[in-house]
């Protein structure tokens, strides 16, 4: 029994889309960023700037020099909070959050 081309393509798209959703759910790098103002990097910071860093500057913030594969905010945007899945916002919005 052969599958029609339409059925084969439909199954293939379903499998690929479920893999992307699983990768996003488990925070696995997919090679692409889905949120606004983000870019995928092979070596993204493990200690990105956040709104807290702008509101209460801490010159003694300690970050390791290691990196990770994943999404990073495009300059001048920063993460809303410490959660790596939080949205990237412009620093001017940090005052109101």
TrEMBL record:
Q: Which residues form a coiled coil?
A: none
Q: Which GO terms describe its molecular function?
A: peptidase inhibitor activity
Any single Pfam family the record assigns to this protein: TIL
Q: Reply yes or no: does the keyword Disulfide bond apply.
A: yes
**Keyword flag Electron transport:** no
Signal peptide location: 1-23
The record's keywords, sorted A to Z, are: Disulfide bond, Protease inhibitor, Signal
TIL domain sequence ranges: 37-94
Domain of life of the source:
Eukaryota
State the name under which the record lists this protein: TIL domain-containing protein
Supply the source organism for this entry: Rotaria socialis
Q: What is the lineage of its organism?
A: Eukaryota, Metazoa, Spiralia, Gnathifera, Rotifera
